[in-house]
Design a protein that fits this description.
Strand content of chain B: under 5%
Order of helices and strands of chain B: HHH
Distance between the termini of chain A: 82 Å
Shape of chain A: globular
Mean pLDDT of chain A: 92
Oligomer: heterodimer
Number of helices of chain B: 3
Radius of gyration of chain A: 25 Å
Largest sheet of chain A: 5 strands, mixed
Mean pLDDT of chain B: 84
Shape of chain B: elongated
Low-confidence stretches of chain A: none
Helix content of chain A: 55-70%
Helix content of chain B: over 70%
Largest interface: A-B, 23 and 23 residues
């Protein structure tokens, strides 16, 4: 960094005090993240729709069974996600039984490791502890990352594998002695990401494009190895499940696309992260025109394809998580280069001859001085843009009042106790992030008791109640809906059982079942308002058999 | 191109972006043909009935517009890289 002989102390004080303020803002967001994580890990039921089905998959794997099953027959259950995420919690499953806490804990810890790797990726390229710390905390501060990190869902574990894989590839490409095994290691971690969730395909594509840009021969060779291993696992899974793997995890995942949802989510993504997106784009432009494209830049560009896919039915803001990780690395690199004035521009670059006359000898020093103020301000702005907090807990309540924040996220009807800057715009439907309460736990136990009291099996749209009650989980509503949408579900047996009222109760949360199944339920069952409960801001409607 | 030391240049990347932009435009417009094909089959695509009923009401949808804008961006980006010649990409 350049030095100013006249006021080094003042410059140091200004730069560091602004950076401390930026860090305080990001650490405040981190404290909310920890509070949310601790709260959610203790919650014994589904918080986000789908968590319970992840647990069912873990249970099935612990019994040596695949969760990719024929849904045409009882219990009409199948998973639509790859297996890796469900294998990690197996030791916990064997020791503690079926619980949510360890799945959430693993995801929560994995995301913090991911944040650490983001910081490391920045620090490895240009050592600056402040920026590395801010880059990692910025990842955890994002509303999108916050929403889904402590969930028992596979998305964030996939993102963490992607972060690790891309960082390994960056290390491999910058290493003075290029070795194939380093690239192979990065690609292997990408395969792990892909077998955690299918969406990692776009990151893999970006990585292969990067390898081909650097050296097509190496890219093609590694790509062939990558495809061979990936397809080999795919073929084995398909053989071991008698074709159900392809049907459930691939064919059933073709869904309707809502372009308006994509546009809404892109707007939300930009509004929340603009203080780091703009530096990211500037950094990519720098690499594109003045030096070589890094794997991080190509990763970011391909991660935007994930964002484009966010308009699919069942998709959401989580599809931007990969781009947020790439953004944190790239903006961190941009800021670190700004502060250290470390730009790598070839002396013979065609454009330098034109740019040089526009600058003076003092220009680099001036840029670095401005950066001392601008960089912390960007992190501060980002931290404030991504603000979210409970408004009814000590300290947070005071901060919310001080910042004049109005709670806007649901906890219970008529009692909003959480502020989220992501709001609830069109398409951005992440109705999560608020803390669970003892009333939510009590509501969950009411449903468990209802199931235990039933002599007949009970269908619940969230699997958790049946798991806690020690009953069999019947159906996976979104998967049945996906299958029916693609003409892959024969609903005859399920509808027959519904018509014959073979279920003691059916508990709805979002009525995600296929239309024909929903119609059969409404004809054979009726809502019992006295048994229906509110939990986590959602109404769980208990349907009981109609009197014939 | 398949040598151990070959690397893509800004010029190569520029042309790749221009070609990708062209292909992207083709995809954006072929969606309309695919939609019509699914409804009336290949023989019916160019029938007077199809042309009268499908051409004007379909127009360019939101997803197509976004894709075409992205293609336009990639085209301009590609053009801007061409003057950088053999600088490694």
């Amino acid at each position: 960094m350049t030095t100013n002989r006249l006021s080094p102390a003042l410059r140091w004080l200004l730069g560091n005090s602004l950076m401390v303020i930026a860090l305080v803002v990001l650490l405040f967001n981190f404290s909310v993240y920890i509070t949310y994580g601790i709260n959610l890990i203790q919650f014994p039921f589904d918080y986000d729709q789908g968590e319970g089905f992840e647990l069912v998959d873990v249970i099935l794997f612990s019994q040596g069974q695949f969760p990719y099953r024929d849904t045409d027959h009882y219990p009409f259950y199948s998973s639509n996600y790859p297996p890796l995420f469900h294998i990690f919690p197996l030791p916990f499953m064997w020791v503690f039984g079926a619980h949510y806490w360890y799945g959430r804990l693993l995801s929560f810890v994995a995301v913090m490791i991911g944040a650490g790797v983001i910081g490391l990726a920045v620090h490895r390229t240009i050592p600056n502890r402040w920026i590395a710390l801010c880059a990692g905390l910025a990842f955890l501060s994002s509303n999108t990352i916050y929403h889904i990190s402590p969930l028992f869902r596979q998305h964030m574990t996939m993102v963490v594998f992607e972060i690790v894989a891309i960082t390994v590839l960056a290390w491999a490409s910058e290493h003075p002695k290029p070795r194939l095994w380093r690239y192979a290691l990065g690609l292997f971690v990408l395969i792990m990401a892909g077998y955690t969730k299918q969406l990692a395909a776009f990151s893999a594509l970006g990585a292969l494009v990067f390898l081909c840009i650097r050296n097509p021969r190496r890219g093609i060779l590694l790509g062939m190895g990558f495809a061979g291993v990936g397809l080999g696992i795919f073929a084995w899974l398909n053989w071991a499940t008698a074709g159900q793997w392809f049907q459930q995890a691939i064919a059933a995942n073709v869904n309707d696309y809502y372009a308006q949802q994509t546009v809404g989510l892109f707007r939300l993504w930009f509004r929340l992260h603009q203080f780091l997106i703009i530096p990211t784009l500037l950094y990519i432009a720098y690499e594109l025109y003045f030096t070589r494209l890094s794997v991080y830049s190509i990763w970011f560009i391909f991660s935007l394809i994930n964002g484009m896919a966010s308009g699919g039915w069942g998709a959401g803001d989580s599809y931007f998580a990969t781009s947020i990780a790439a953004m944190c690395v790239l903006s961190g690199l941009f800021f670190a280069r700004l502060l250290h004035n470390q730009w790598e521009i070839a002396p013979a670059h065609r454009w330098m001859a034109r740019i040089k006359p526009l600058t003076t000898r003092a220009t680099p020093s001036l840029i670095a001085k401005v950066a001392i103020v601008v960089v912390p301000l960007c992190y501060m702005g980002y931290g404030l843009n991504t603000l979210k907090m409970p408004t009814n807990l000590p300290v947070y309540e005071t901060v919310a009042r001080w910042l004049k924040l109005t709670p806007n996220a649901p906890a219970h009807v008529g009692e909003k106790t959480f502020y989220d800057s992501a709001g609830r715009i069109a398409g951005g439907y992440a109705n999560i992030g608020h803390l669970t309460t003892p009333a939510d736990v009590e509501a969950g136990w009411q449903l468990v008791e209802l199931i235990q009291a039933s002599a007949k099996p009970v269908i619940t749209e969230d699997a958790g109640f049946n798991i806690v009650a020690g009953r069999e989980v019947i159906t996976n509503p979104t998967q049945l809906r996906n299958l029916a949408h693609n003409d892959l579900f024969d609903d005859t047996e399920l509808i027959q059982m519904i018509e014959q009222q073979e279920f003691g109760a059916i508990i709805f949360r979002a009525q995600f079942y296929p239309p024909r199944v929903l119609q059969a339920i409404h004809e054979a069952y009726e809502p019992n308002e006295s048994e229906s409960v509110m939990m986590n801001g959602f109404k769980y409607i208990v349907m009981r058999p109609r009197t014939k | 191109m398949l040598s151990k030391n070959f690397t893509l240049t800004k010029w190569h990347l520029g042309w790749l972006l221009i070609i990708s932009a062209g292909l992207g435009c083709l995809v954006a417009f072929s969606v309309d043909f695919l939609t019509i094909y699914r409804q009336v089959g290949f023989d019916g695509i160019f029938s007077s009935y199809t042309l009268a009923h499908f051409r004007s009401p379909m127009g360019i949808g939101l997803a197509q517009r976004v894709l075409l804008q992205a293609c336009a961006g990639a085209f301009v980006l590609g053009l801007s890289l061409l003057p950088l010649g053999n600088q490694p990409a």
